[in-house]
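The following block was generated as part of the benchmark described in Methods. Ligand: flavin-adenine dinucleotide.
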Amino acid sequence: MTDATVDGGHSEAAEPGATAPGATASQVRLPPVVAAEHHAAVAAFRESYADLPAGAPVRLAKRTSNLFRFREPAPRAGSRRAAQGPATPPGLDASAFTSVLHVDPAARAAVVGGMTTYEDLADATLRHGLMPLVVPQLKTITLGGAVTGLGIESTSLRNGLPHESVTAMEILTGDGSVVTATAEGEHADLFHGFPNSYGTLGYALSLTIELEPVAPFVHLRHFRYNSPQDCMAAIAQIAAEGSLHGYRADFVDGTAFGLDEIYLTVGAFSDVAPWRSDYTGQQIYYRSVRGPREDFLTIRDYLWRWDTDWFWCSRPFGVQQPVVRRLWPRRYRRSDVYRSLVAFDRRHHLSDTLDANRGRPPREAVIQDVEIPVDRGAEFLRFFAADVGMSPVWLCPLRLRSDTSWPLYPLRPGEVYVNFGFWGTVPLPPGRRDGYHNRLVETEVAALGGSKGLYSTSFYSEEDFWATYNGPAYARLKRAYDGGGRLSGLYEKCVRGS
Ligand SMILES: Cc1cc2nc3c(=O)[nH]c(=O)nc-3n(C[C@H](O)[C@H](O)[C@H](O)COP(=O)(O)OP(=O)(O)OC[C@H]3O[C@@H](n4cnc5c(N)ncnc54)[C@H](O)[C@@H]3O)c2cc1C
Protein backbone atom coordinates (compact mmCIF):
# COMPACT_ATOMS: atom_id res chain seq x y z
CA MET A 1 0.00 0.00 0.00
CA THR A 2 2.59 2.51 -1.09
CA ASP A 3 0.16 5.25 -1.99
CA ALA A 4 -1.94 5.36 1.12
CA THR A 5 -3.12 8.87 1.83
CA VAL A 6 -3.00 10.18 5.35
CA ASP A 7 -5.25 13.03 6.30
CA GLY A 8 -2.83 14.21 8.87
CA GLY A 9 -0.56 16.94 7.68
CA HIS A 10 2.69 18.12 9.13
CA SER A 11 3.08 19.03 12.75
CA GLU A 12 4.17 22.52 13.54
CA ALA A 13 3.89 22.35 17.32
CA ALA A 14 4.23 18.87 18.81
CA GLU A 15 2.21 19.57 21.97
CA PRO A 16 1.54 16.30 23.82
CA GLY A 17 -1.96 15.10 23.13
CA ALA A 18 -2.48 17.69 20.42
CA THR A 19 -4.58 16.34 17.61
CA ALA A 20 -2.92 16.24 14.23
CA PRO A 21 -3.49 19.36 12.18
CA GLY A 22 -5.91 18.19 9.53
CA ALA A 23 -5.54 20.98 7.01
CA THR A 24 -3.19 19.34 4.51
CA ALA A 25 -3.32 15.79 3.31
CA SER A 26 0.07 14.16 3.09
CA GLN A 27 1.18 10.94 1.46
CA VAL A 28 2.83 8.30 3.59
CA ARG A 29 5.03 6.25 1.31
CA LEU A 30 6.70 3.06 2.32
CA PRO A 31 10.44 2.84 1.73
CA PRO A 32 10.87 0.89 -1.56
CA VAL A 33 12.37 -2.26 0.01
CA VAL A 34 9.60 -2.45 2.61
CA ALA A 35 6.99 -1.84 -0.07
CA ALA A 36 8.37 -4.64 -2.26
CA GLU A 37 8.42 -7.13 0.62
CA HIS A 38 4.94 -6.16 1.68
CA HIS A 39 3.54 -6.52 -1.85
CA ALA A 40 5.07 -9.98 -2.09
CA ALA A 41 3.53 -10.94 1.26
CA VAL A 42 0.11 -9.67 0.16
CA ALA A 43 0.34 -11.67 -3.07
CA ALA A 44 1.30 -14.82 -1.15
CA PHE A 45 -1.51 -14.33 1.37
CA ARG A 46 -4.01 -13.86 -1.42
CA GLU A 47 -2.81 -17.08 -3.04
CA SER A 48 -3.06 -19.05 0.21
CA TYR A 49 -6.59 -17.76 0.57
CA ALA A 50 -7.46 -18.83 -2.97
CA ASP A 51 -5.94 -22.27 -2.29
CA LEU A 52 -8.10 -23.02 0.74
CA PRO A 53 -10.56 -25.82 -0.01
CA ALA A 54 -13.90 -24.50 -1.23
CA GLY A 55 -16.55 -24.64 1.47
CA ALA A 56 -14.08 -25.01 4.35
CA PRO A 57 -14.40 -22.34 7.03
CA VAL A 58 -11.63 -19.73 6.92
CA ARG A 59 -9.69 -18.63 9.99
CA LEU A 60 -6.64 -16.55 10.73
CA ALA A 61 -3.75 -18.49 12.24
CA LYS A 62 -2.58 -15.88 14.75
CA ARG A 63 -0.21 -16.41 17.62
CA THR A 64 -2.40 -14.46 20.05
CA SER A 65 -6.05 -13.59 20.53
CA ASN A 66 -8.15 -11.59 22.94
CA LEU A 67 -11.45 -13.08 21.95
CA PHE A 68 -13.42 -14.81 24.65
CA ARG A 69 -15.01 -17.46 22.51
CA PHE A 70 -12.84 -20.50 22.89
CA ARG A 71 -12.21 -23.22 20.37
CA GLU A 72 -9.38 -25.55 19.41
CA PRO A 73 -6.56 -23.51 17.87
CA ALA A 74 -6.32 -23.88 14.10
CA PRO A 75 -3.15 -25.49 12.76
CA ARG A 76 -1.22 -23.64 10.07
CA ALA A 77 -1.93 -24.63 6.48
CA GLY A 78 0.62 -27.26 5.43
CA SER A 79 1.53 -28.27 8.99
CA ARG A 80 1.56 -31.95 10.04
CA ARG A 81 -1.51 -31.50 12.20
CA ALA A 82 -3.38 -29.93 9.27
CA ALA A 83 -2.29 -32.83 7.02
CA GLN A 84 -3.58 -35.35 9.57
CA GLY A 85 -7.09 -34.01 9.21
CA PRO A 86 -7.61 -31.54 12.05
CA ALA A 87 -10.67 -31.02 14.19
CA THR A 88 -10.60 -27.38 13.08
CA PRO A 89 -9.69 -26.23 9.59
CA PRO A 90 -6.26 -24.79 8.85
CA GLY A 91 -5.81 -21.09 9.45
CA LEU A 92 -4.25 -18.53 7.13
CA ASP A 93 -0.73 -17.69 8.19
CA ALA A 94 -0.81 -14.00 9.10
CA SER A 95 2.79 -13.75 10.28
CA ALA A 96 3.86 -11.53 7.37
CA PHE A 97 1.62 -8.75 8.68
CA THR A 98 2.84 -8.51 12.25
CA SER A 99 5.17 -5.55 12.08
CA VAL A 100 5.17 -1.78 11.74
CA LEU A 101 6.04 -1.02 8.13
CA HIS A 102 6.85 2.65 8.48
CA VAL A 103 6.56 5.55 10.92
CA ASP A 104 6.52 9.03 9.41
CA PRO A 105 7.13 11.42 12.30
CA ALA A 106 6.63 14.53 10.18
CA ALA A 107 3.20 13.42 9.03
CA ARG A 108 2.49 11.92 12.46
CA ALA A 109 1.37 8.74 10.80
CA ALA A 110 2.32 5.09 10.52
CA VAL A 111 1.69 2.25 8.10
CA VAL A 112 1.22 -0.92 10.09
CA GLY A 113 0.73 -4.61 9.32
CA GLY A 114 -2.84 -5.62 10.19
CA MET A 115 -1.84 -8.23 12.77
CA THR A 116 0.76 -6.08 14.55
CA THR A 117 0.35 -6.06 18.31
CA TYR A 118 -0.08 -2.74 20.05
CA GLU A 119 2.98 -3.64 22.13
CA ASP A 120 5.14 -3.56 19.00
CA LEU A 121 3.25 -0.64 17.53
CA ALA A 122 3.59 1.52 20.65
CA ASP A 123 7.30 0.70 20.95
CA ALA A 124 7.88 1.73 17.33
CA THR A 125 6.03 5.03 17.68
CA LEU A 126 7.23 5.97 21.19
CA ARG A 127 10.75 5.95 19.75
CA HIS A 128 9.64 9.02 17.80
CA GLY A 129 7.81 10.62 20.75
CA LEU A 130 4.45 9.58 19.26
CA MET A 131 1.67 7.11 20.02
CA PRO A 132 -1.49 5.89 18.30
CA LEU A 133 -4.49 8.01 19.30
CA VAL A 134 -5.98 5.08 21.24
CA VAL A 135 -3.85 2.23 22.60
CA PRO A 136 -6.00 -0.63 23.98
CA GLN A 137 -4.67 -1.87 27.31
CA LEU A 138 -3.72 -5.42 26.44
CA LYS A 139 -0.33 -5.78 24.79
CA THR A 140 -1.32 -8.47 22.30
CA ILE A 141 -4.41 -6.76 20.94
CA THR A 142 -3.56 -6.09 17.31
CA LEU A 143 -4.37 -3.04 15.27
CA GLY A 144 -6.57 -5.02 12.87
CA GLY A 145 -8.31 -6.72 15.81
CA ALA A 146 -9.00 -3.42 17.55
CA VAL A 147 -10.38 -1.85 14.38
CA THR A 148 -12.60 -4.75 13.36
CA GLY A 149 -13.48 -5.51 16.99
CA LEU A 150 -13.70 -1.98 18.46
CA GLY A 151 -10.97 -1.31 20.99
CA ILE A 152 -11.18 1.39 23.62
CA GLU A 153 -8.94 3.11 26.16
CA SER A 154 -8.58 6.09 28.41
CA THR A 155 -7.98 8.52 25.51
CA SER A 156 -11.35 7.56 24.00
CA LEU A 157 -13.18 10.56 25.43
CA ARG A 158 -10.74 12.76 23.54
CA ASN A 159 -9.89 10.61 20.52
CA GLY A 160 -12.83 8.25 20.03
CA LEU A 161 -12.19 4.63 19.04
CA PRO A 162 -9.15 3.14 17.26
CA HIS A 163 -10.85 2.97 13.86
CA GLU A 164 -11.45 6.73 13.91
CA SER A 165 -7.76 7.48 13.44
CA VAL A 166 -7.33 5.03 10.57
CA THR A 167 -7.01 6.81 7.25
CA ALA A 168 -6.61 3.83 4.92
CA MET A 169 -6.92 0.06 5.10
CA GLU A 170 -5.64 -2.55 2.69
CA ILE A 171 -8.12 -5.39 2.93
CA LEU A 172 -8.26 -8.90 1.52
CA THR A 173 -12.00 -9.19 1.04
CA GLY A 174 -14.05 -12.36 1.37
CA ASP A 175 -14.26 -12.67 -2.40
CA GLY A 176 -10.45 -12.76 -2.64
CA SER A 177 -9.70 -9.24 -3.92
CA VAL A 178 -7.25 -6.89 -2.25
CA VAL A 179 -8.64 -3.35 -2.02
CA THR A 180 -7.61 -0.11 -0.37
CA ALA A 181 -10.49 1.35 1.60
CA THR A 182 -10.55 5.01 2.62
CA ALA A 183 -13.25 7.26 4.03
CA GLU A 184 -14.11 8.71 0.65
CA GLY A 185 -12.68 6.39 -1.97
CA GLU A 186 -14.24 3.67 -4.07
CA HIS A 187 -14.51 1.35 -1.08
CA ALA A 188 -15.76 3.92 1.42
CA ASP A 189 -18.64 1.58 2.29
CA LEU A 190 -16.17 -1.10 3.39
CA PHE A 191 -14.07 1.46 5.28
CA HIS A 192 -17.10 2.49 7.32
CA GLY A 193 -18.52 -1.00 7.67
CA PHE A 194 -15.28 -2.66 8.74
CA PRO A 195 -15.48 -1.69 12.46
CA ASN A 196 -17.53 -4.35 14.25
CA SER A 197 -17.36 -6.77 11.31
CA TYR A 198 -14.93 -9.12 13.15
CA GLY A 199 -13.17 -10.38 10.06
CA THR A 200 -16.41 -11.43 8.36
CA LEU A 201 -16.00 -9.08 5.40
CA GLY A 202 -12.25 -9.44 4.98
CA TYR A 203 -8.89 -9.12 6.69
CA ALA A 204 -6.98 -5.85 7.10
CA LEU A 205 -3.44 -6.52 5.90
CA SER A 206 -2.13 -3.03 6.50
CA LEU A 207 -3.54 0.14 7.98
CA THR A 208 -2.43 3.76 7.89
CA ILE A 209 -3.06 5.51 11.18
CA GLU A 210 -2.64 8.93 12.69
CA LEU A 211 -0.33 9.39 15.67
CA GLU A 212 -0.16 12.02 18.40
CA PRO A 213 2.80 13.44 20.31
CA VAL A 214 3.42 12.29 23.87
CA ALA A 215 5.34 13.54 26.90
CA PRO A 216 7.67 11.16 28.76
CA PHE A 217 5.38 10.80 31.80
CA VAL A 218 1.74 10.66 32.81
CA HIS A 219 0.65 12.43 35.98
CA LEU A 220 -2.27 10.51 37.46
CA ARG A 221 -4.85 11.70 39.96
CA HIS A 222 -7.43 9.38 41.49
CA PHE A 223 -10.77 10.84 42.62
CA ARG A 224 -13.19 8.87 44.79
CA TYR A 225 -16.99 8.97 44.44
CA ASN A 226 -19.46 7.54 46.90
CA SER A 227 -22.31 7.12 44.45
CA PRO A 228 -22.68 6.24 40.76
CA GLN A 229 -24.55 9.52 40.13
CA ASP A 230 -21.66 11.62 41.43
CA CYS A 231 -19.20 9.67 39.31
CA MET A 232 -21.32 10.04 36.15
CA ALA A 233 -21.69 13.77 36.84
CA ALA A 234 -17.90 14.07 37.06
CA ILE A 235 -17.51 12.24 33.73
CA ALA A 236 -20.03 14.58 32.11
CA GLN A 237 -18.06 17.53 33.49
CA ILE A 238 -14.77 16.19 32.09
CA ALA A 239 -16.45 15.65 28.73
CA ALA A 240 -17.64 19.25 28.72
CA GLU A 241 -14.48 20.91 30.04
CA GLY A 242 -11.57 18.56 29.25
CA SER A 243 -10.46 18.72 32.86
CA LEU A 244 -11.53 17.92 36.42
CA HIS A 245 -10.95 20.31 39.32
CA GLY A 246 -8.50 22.16 37.09
CA TYR A 247 -6.51 19.04 36.15
CA ARG A 248 -6.19 18.40 32.41
CA ALA A 249 -7.74 15.12 31.35
CA ASP A 250 -5.59 13.69 28.57
CA PHE A 251 -6.59 10.26 29.87
CA VAL A 252 -9.68 9.21 31.87
CA ASP A 253 -10.81 5.86 33.16
CA GLY A 254 -12.18 4.47 36.39
CA THR A 255 -12.61 1.51 38.69
CA ALA A 256 -15.76 0.65 40.65
CA PHE A 257 -15.12 -1.55 43.68
CA GLY A 258 -18.71 -1.05 44.85
CA LEU A 259 -21.54 1.44 44.45
CA ASP A 260 -20.05 3.58 47.22
CA GLU A 261 -16.43 3.24 46.15
CA ILE A 262 -15.79 4.35 42.60
CA TYR A 263 -12.59 6.00 41.41
CA LEU A 264 -11.98 8.11 38.36
CA THR A 265 -8.36 8.32 37.30
CA VAL A 266 -7.49 11.45 35.37
CA GLY A 267 -4.10 11.49 33.66
CA ALA A 268 -2.17 14.38 32.11
CA PHE A 269 0.94 14.23 29.97
CA SER A 270 3.89 15.54 31.94
CA ASP A 271 7.50 16.41 31.10
CA VAL A 272 8.60 15.85 34.66
CA ALA A 273 7.99 13.21 37.33
CA PRO A 274 9.10 13.75 40.94
CA TRP A 275 8.85 9.97 41.32
CA ARG A 276 7.71 7.07 39.14
CA SER A 277 5.75 4.07 40.29
CA ASP A 278 6.34 0.59 38.91
CA TYR A 279 3.43 -1.83 38.71
CA THR A 280 5.30 -4.51 36.80
CA GLY A 281 6.97 -5.71 40.01
CA GLN A 282 5.48 -6.32 43.43
CA GLN A 283 2.94 -3.46 43.39
CA ILE A 284 -0.40 -3.94 41.65
CA TYR A 285 -1.89 -1.12 39.62
CA TYR A 286 -5.60 -1.59 40.28
CA ARG A 287 -5.04 -1.47 44.02
CA SER A 288 -3.10 1.77 43.67
CA VAL A 289 -6.15 3.74 42.55
CA ARG A 290 -7.43 3.55 46.15
CA GLY A 291 -4.58 5.83 47.18
CA PRO A 292 -2.38 7.78 47.42
CA ARG A 293 -4.28 10.23 45.27
CA GLU A 294 -1.40 11.23 43.05
CA ASP A 295 0.96 9.10 40.99
CA PHE A 296 3.42 9.23 38.09
CA LEU A 297 4.21 6.63 35.44
CA THR A 298 6.36 6.68 32.35
CA ILE A 299 4.19 6.87 29.25
CA ARG A 300 5.06 3.26 28.36
CA ASP A 301 4.23 1.98 31.84
CA TYR A 302 1.01 3.98 31.73
CA LEU A 303 -0.04 2.36 28.43
CA TRP A 304 0.49 -1.12 29.88
CA ARG A 305 -0.64 -0.44 33.45
CA TRP A 306 -3.55 -2.86 33.09
CA ASP A 307 -1.72 -5.55 31.14
CA THR A 308 0.57 -6.80 33.94
CA ASP A 309 -2.36 -8.15 35.95
CA TRP A 310 -4.89 -8.30 33.11
CA PHE A 311 -6.76 -5.58 34.99
CA TRP A 312 -7.46 -7.60 38.17
CA CYS A 313 -8.10 -10.91 36.39
CA SER A 314 -4.73 -12.41 37.43
CA ARG A 315 -6.18 -12.83 40.95
CA PRO A 316 -7.41 -16.46 40.59
CA PHE A 317 -3.88 -17.58 39.69
CA GLY A 318 -2.60 -16.46 43.08
CA VAL A 319 -0.06 -14.07 41.61
CA GLN A 320 -1.40 -11.13 43.57
CA GLN A 321 -0.23 -12.79 46.78
CA PRO A 322 3.23 -11.41 47.66
CA VAL A 323 4.96 -14.79 47.99
CA VAL A 324 3.62 -16.24 44.75
CA ARG A 325 4.22 -12.94 42.97
CA ARG A 326 7.87 -12.92 43.92
CA LEU A 327 8.27 -16.43 42.49
CA TRP A 328 6.19 -15.82 39.35
CA PRO A 329 8.66 -14.79 36.64
CA ARG A 330 8.28 -11.18 35.51
CA ARG A 331 8.03 -12.23 31.85
CA TYR A 332 4.85 -14.17 32.72
CA ARG A 333 3.13 -11.17 34.29
CA ARG A 334 1.25 -10.46 31.10
CA SER A 335 -2.35 -10.64 29.96
CA ASP A 336 -1.61 -13.12 27.14
CA VAL A 337 -0.12 -15.59 29.63
CA TYR A 338 -3.20 -15.40 31.87
CA ARG A 339 -5.50 -15.69 28.89
CA SER A 340 -3.73 -18.87 27.78
CA LEU A 341 -4.26 -20.32 31.25
CA VAL A 342 -7.96 -19.48 31.12
CA ALA A 343 -8.23 -20.94 27.61
CA PHE A 344 -6.64 -24.18 28.83
CA ASP A 345 -9.03 -24.31 31.78
CA ARG A 346 -12.05 -23.71 29.54
CA ARG A 347 -11.04 -26.31 26.99
CA HIS A 348 -10.50 -28.95 29.62
CA HIS A 349 -13.36 -27.86 31.94
CA LEU A 350 -11.01 -27.98 34.95
CA SER A 351 -12.71 -25.39 37.16
CA ASP A 352 -16.18 -26.66 36.21
CA THR A 353 -15.23 -30.20 37.20
CA LEU A 354 -13.67 -29.01 40.45
CA ASP A 355 -16.78 -26.99 41.33
CA ALA A 356 -19.05 -29.94 40.54
CA ASN A 357 -16.93 -32.31 42.65
CA ARG A 358 -17.11 -29.90 45.57
CA GLY A 359 -20.88 -29.59 45.23
CA ARG A 360 -20.71 -25.90 44.32
CA PRO A 361 -23.26 -24.37 41.95
CA PRO A 362 -22.16 -24.03 38.33
CA ARG A 363 -20.76 -20.62 37.43
CA GLU A 364 -21.42 -18.47 34.40
CA ALA A 365 -18.67 -16.47 32.71
CA VAL A 366 -19.81 -12.87 32.38
CA ILE A 367 -17.09 -11.27 30.29
CA GLN A 368 -18.34 -8.22 28.45
CA ASP A 369 -17.76 -4.60 27.58
CA VAL A 370 -20.85 -2.44 27.15
CA GLU A 371 -21.34 1.23 26.32
CA ILE A 372 -24.08 3.17 28.07
CA PRO A 373 -24.98 6.86 27.64
CA VAL A 374 -23.46 8.72 30.58
CA ASP A 375 -26.85 9.91 31.85
CA ARG A 376 -27.98 6.26 32.20
CA GLY A 377 -24.63 5.00 33.57
CA ALA A 378 -25.69 5.16 37.23
CA GLU A 379 -28.74 3.02 36.44
CA PHE A 380 -26.51 0.46 34.77
CA LEU A 381 -24.15 0.24 37.74
CA ARG A 382 -27.08 -0.24 40.12
CA PHE A 383 -28.59 -2.93 37.91
CA PHE A 384 -25.23 -4.67 37.62
CA ALA A 385 -24.58 -4.64 41.38
CA ALA A 386 -28.05 -6.02 42.11
CA ASP A 387 -28.45 -8.59 39.34
CA VAL A 388 -24.93 -9.75 38.53
CA GLY A 389 -22.93 -8.68 41.57
CA MET A 390 -19.38 -8.82 40.26
CA SER A 391 -16.62 -6.38 41.10
CA PRO A 392 -14.46 -4.55 40.28
CA VAL A 393 -15.93 -3.01 37.14
CA TRP A 394 -13.83 -0.94 34.73
CA LEU A 395 -15.21 2.40 33.53
CA CYS A 396 -13.99 4.19 30.44
CA PRO A 397 -15.74 7.25 29.02
CA LEU A 398 -15.82 7.68 25.26
CA ARG A 399 -17.27 9.86 22.56
CA LEU A 400 -17.01 9.48 18.80
CA ARG A 401 -14.22 11.68 17.52
CA SER A 402 -16.14 13.09 14.57
CA ASP A 403 -19.69 13.45 13.31
CA THR A 404 -19.31 10.30 11.25
CA SER A 405 -21.34 7.36 12.49
CA TRP A 406 -20.23 3.81 11.81
CA PRO A 407 -23.02 1.68 10.40
CA LEU A 408 -22.36 -1.61 12.21
CA TYR A 409 -22.01 -0.21 15.73
CA PRO A 410 -24.74 2.09 16.94
CA LEU A 411 -22.95 4.94 18.75
CA ARG A 412 -24.47 8.38 18.23
CA PRO A 413 -22.08 11.21 17.28
CA GLY A 414 -21.76 13.83 20.02
CA GLU A 415 -23.12 11.57 22.77
CA VAL A 416 -20.90 10.73 25.76
CA TYR A 417 -20.92 7.06 26.73
CA VAL A 418 -19.31 5.10 29.52
CA ASN A 419 -17.82 1.72 28.69
CA PHE A 420 -18.29 -0.73 31.55
CA GLY A 421 -15.98 -3.75 31.42
CA PHE A 422 -16.47 -6.81 33.63
CA TRP A 423 -14.60 -10.03 33.31
CA GLY A 424 -15.24 -12.92 35.66
CA THR A 425 -17.66 -15.65 36.70
CA VAL A 426 -20.72 -15.63 38.99
CA PRO A 427 -22.70 -18.55 40.44
CA LEU A 428 -25.89 -19.41 38.59
CA PRO A 429 -29.07 -19.23 40.70
CA PRO A 430 -30.78 -22.64 41.12
CA GLY A 431 -32.65 -23.67 37.99
CA ARG A 432 -30.92 -21.12 35.75
CA ARG A 433 -28.81 -22.08 32.76
CA ASP A 434 -25.65 -20.67 31.26
CA GLY A 435 -26.45 -17.37 29.57
CA TYR A 436 -28.83 -16.21 32.30
CA HIS A 437 -26.74 -13.25 33.51
CA ASN A 438 -25.43 -12.44 30.04
CA ARG A 439 -28.97 -12.24 28.75
CA LEU A 440 -29.92 -9.90 31.61
CA VAL A 441 -27.02 -7.67 30.64
CA GLU A 442 -28.02 -7.65 26.97
CA THR A 443 -31.59 -6.71 27.85
CA GLU A 444 -30.55 -3.94 30.24
CA VAL A 445 -28.04 -2.50 27.78
CA ALA A 446 -30.77 -2.26 25.13
CA ALA A 447 -33.23 -0.72 27.62
CA LEU A 448 -30.70 1.98 28.54
CA GLY A 449 -29.96 2.91 24.90
CA GLY A 450 -26.48 1.36 24.97
CA SER A 451 -24.64 -1.26 22.97
CA LYS A 452 -22.47 -4.29 23.62
CA GLY A 453 -19.14 -5.30 22.10
CA LEU A 454 -19.03 -8.69 20.39
CA TYR A 455 -15.62 -10.07 21.37
CA SER A 456 -17.13 -12.46 23.91
CA THR A 457 -20.26 -14.58 24.15
CA SER A 458 -23.61 -13.24 22.97
CA PHE A 459 -27.09 -14.65 23.31
CA TYR A 460 -29.20 -12.42 21.06
CA SER A 461 -31.92 -13.91 18.91
CA GLU A 462 -31.11 -13.40 15.25
CA GLU A 463 -33.88 -10.82 14.98
CA ASP A 464 -32.66 -8.75 17.97
CA PHE A 465 -29.08 -9.02 16.79
CA TRP A 466 -29.75 -7.60 13.35
CA ALA A 467 -32.02 -4.91 14.76
CA THR A 468 -29.14 -3.85 17.03
CA TYR A 469 -26.23 -4.16 14.59
CA ASN A 470 -27.83 -2.82 11.42
CA GLY A 471 -28.70 -6.01 9.53
CA PRO A 472 -29.58 -4.28 6.22
CA ALA A 473 -26.22 -2.42 6.05
CA TYR A 474 -24.34 -5.59 6.91
CA ALA A 475 -26.21 -7.60 4.28
CA ARG A 476 -25.29 -5.02 1.61
CA LEU A 477 -21.61 -5.16 2.60
CA LYS A 478 -21.60 -8.93 2.72
CA ARG A 479 -23.05 -9.11 -0.79
CA ALA A 480 -20.53 -6.57 -2.10
CA TYR A 481 -17.37 -8.01 -0.53
CA ASP A 482 -18.09 -11.66 0.25
CA GLY A 483 -20.88 -12.52 -2.13
CA GLY A 484 -19.92 -16.21 -2.15
CA GLY A 485 -20.13 -16.38 1.66
CA ARG A 486 -16.54 -17.57 1.94
CA LEU A 487 -16.20 -16.04 5.43
CA SER A 488 -18.57 -16.65 8.35
CA GLY A 489 -21.46 -14.27 8.83
CA LEU A 490 -21.39 -11.87 11.78
CA TYR A 491 -24.25 -13.57 13.62
CA GLU A 492 -22.81 -17.05 13.06
CA LYS A 493 -19.40 -15.93 14.30
CA CYS A 494 -20.36 -13.77 17.26
CA VAL A 495 -23.44 -15.55 18.59
CA ARG A 496 -23.27 -19.13 17.35
CA GLY A 497 -19.48 -19.16 17.66
CA SER A 498 -19.04 -20.93 14.34
C1 LIG B 1 -10.83 -9.63 29.31
C2 LIG B 1 -10.87 -8.74 28.11
C3 LIG B 1 -10.70 -7.39 28.28
C4 LIG B 1 -10.69 -6.56 27.19
N1 LIG B 1 -10.46 -5.29 27.42
C5 LIG B 1 -10.33 -4.48 26.39
C6 LIG B 1 -10.00 -3.15 26.61
O1 LIG B 1 -9.87 -2.72 27.73
N2 LIG B 1 -9.80 -2.34 25.56
C7 LIG B 1 -9.95 -2.82 24.31
O2 LIG B 1 -9.72 -2.09 23.38
N3 LIG B 1 -10.37 -4.05 24.07
C8 LIG B 1 -10.53 -4.91 25.08
N4 LIG B 1 -10.89 -6.19 24.83
C9 LIG B 1 -11.39 -6.58 23.50
C10 LIG B 1 -10.40 -6.68 22.39
O3 LIG B 1 -10.01 -5.40 21.94
C11 LIG B 1 -11.08 -7.36 21.22
O4 LIG B 1 -11.33 -8.68 21.59
C12 LIG B 1 -10.23 -7.30 19.95
O5 LIG B 1 -10.99 -7.69 18.84
C13 LIG B 1 -9.06 -8.24 20.11
O6 LIG B 1 -8.17 -8.06 19.06
P1 LIG B 1 -7.05 -9.13 18.70
O7 LIG B 1 -6.10 -8.38 17.90
O8 LIG B 1 -6.54 -9.82 19.91
O9 LIG B 1 -7.82 -10.07 17.72
P2 LIG B 1 -8.28 -11.57 17.81
O10 LIG B 1 -8.76 -11.85 19.20
O11 LIG B 1 -7.26 -12.44 17.25
O12 LIG B 1 -9.48 -11.51 16.80
C14 LIG B 1 -10.64 -10.78 17.06
C15 LIG B 1 -11.53 -10.84 15.85
O13 LIG B 1 -11.03 -9.97 14.89
C16 LIG B 1 -10.73 -10.65 13.68
N5 LIG B 1 -9.48 -10.09 13.22
C17 LIG B 1 -8.27 -10.12 13.83
N6 LIG B 1 -7.36 -9.47 13.09
C18 LIG B 1 -8.02 -9.01 12.01
C19 LIG B 1 -7.65 -8.25 10.88
N7 LIG B 1 -6.40 -7.83 10.70
N8 LIG B 1 -8.59 -7.96 9.96
C20 LIG B 1 -9.87 -8.36 10.11
N9 LIG B 1 -10.27 -9.09 11.15
C21 LIG B 1 -9.37 -9.40 12.09
C22 LIG B 1 -10.64 -12.11 14.02
O14 LIG B 1 -11.05 -12.89 12.93
C23 LIG B 1 -11.62 -12.20 15.18
O15 LIG B 1 -12.93 -12.35 14.75
C24 LIG B 1 -10.93 -7.05 25.89
C25 LIG B 1 -11.11 -8.41 25.71
C26 LIG B 1 -11.07 -9.24 26.80
C27 LIG B 1 -11.27 -10.69 26.57
